[in-house]
Amino acid sequence: xxxxxxxxxxxxxxxxxxxxxxxxxxxxxxxxxxxxxxxxxxxxxxxxxxxxxxxxxxxxxxxxxxxxxxxxxxxxxxxxxxxxxxxxxxxxxxxxxxxxxxxxxxxxxxxxxxxxxxxxxxxxxxxxxxxxxxxxxxxxxxxxxxxxxxxxxxxxxxxxxxxxxxxxxxxxxxxxxxxxxxxxxxxxxxxxxxxxxxxxxxxxxxxxxxxxxxxxxxxxxxxxxxxxxxxxxxxxxxxxxxxxxxxxxxxxxxxxxxxxxxxxxxxxxxxxxxxxxxxxx
Length: 281
Ligand code: SAM
Prior knowledge:
By secondary structure, the chain is an alpha/beta fold. It is about 40% helix and about 20% strand. The structure holds S-adenosylmethionine.
């Protein structure tokens, strides 16, 4: 059996053969750590279908193909299409789509996979420049992804995984944890990539909550959460006074939800934010 694509020697061979120059503008840093690739794939393994964002030369795609029923990978860079046709030729359960993931009609595009394979998951070693945009598209998809495993810059990963009281806890943590449980799977140092970026990475596993305490308008809820965190040093009362442009309303809302005006947003759990928000609407 051929060596895994994610081994440094196989990647080097592929890069030389196809004369690949990694494009910084597309966030191209190839994973050259086979055990990290295997662990990511393991987290989404099973009978369902998985979509991958940014297959590159196929380091993760190959591992996914070995563990999942079907893989659909979206790649923006046309130069990788012949490379992927070659590296993924042993895996007929894999399909590569040449498209900017941010323009994909995700609900239409994944309906067939969901119908055929029962469940949908997603994975990717995400391009740094659009990590949060990609993740929020996945979170908000109508055909919900049951698991999303994503590699990203470590600082961003820490914000997604943070809980109340953590210095990294903020609006992004609450917005993602409203729909998903988040857990860090592993840290991946910068030298696990070619070319090596100047930041370290980490992998987060997002697991869809079985019960979601739905609000009538998610965007409105998220705007409210952002307002609560607007000035981190300020109290909830001060941030909400600005949001409502009215001191009395801020006081009433906080009291109605049973919180104290001196509390800070960083202390509140997702359930607390929902309670606070419901005392407004
Ligand atoms: N999965 C490969 C790996 O782990 O070695 C490559 C990961 S590299 C960090 C990110 C990949 O995303 C690149 O292949 C890049 O061309 C692709 N990419 C960047 N922007 C994209 C977009 N908007 N839509 C789809 N793919 C994109």
